[in-house]
Amino acid sequence: MIQHRLGVFNLSEKELRPQGTTRKEMVHGSVYKTANESWIPTTTRNRDDYPSLVVEIGVLESYERLKTDARIWLDASDKRTRIVLLVVLDLEKLEIRIERWERAMVQRRIVTRSVTARMGGPARCIQRIILTRVGPGNVTVTGAPLVLPLATIFDGDGIPPLSSDVDVDNELSFSAQMLEQMAIRYFAAF
Asked: How many domains, the chain?
């Protein structure tokens, strides 16, 4: 889904390389994480760096563990992982929850200089979308669109040239209709 959406904006693996289920040693060396899917911007990072975008997938029973995984990616990757998408499947309710996690930006006053600076805060859920099957071929979507800011994925200044009508903070968005179609295909298996 993400790779297809990148293609709409003529972004290819040359700019944002899929790394799949990459396994990375976290900064403190005692923890390893393996993402279900991940991407790394080639314009700002080398091949062995941490991915900037990670997807973790699990069932509702593992939700607490998935939240911990998101925090580890965001906090223990030397702040190199910028966005973690959690995809949580509730097989009883036939519901898909998609959460976008980032390090929350907080305003802090630097006492010695009396200026306010934006600092990276704790990892937290920034956006939540719920896709619920209400009948065969019928899904309700709450919280759409899903927005993945390219400026965040590409480390702020490494964004490849884009068409002038593209909003850098919103162009990688997934509308309610797109998410609904994805969920209908998934739920067709039940």
From this structure: 1
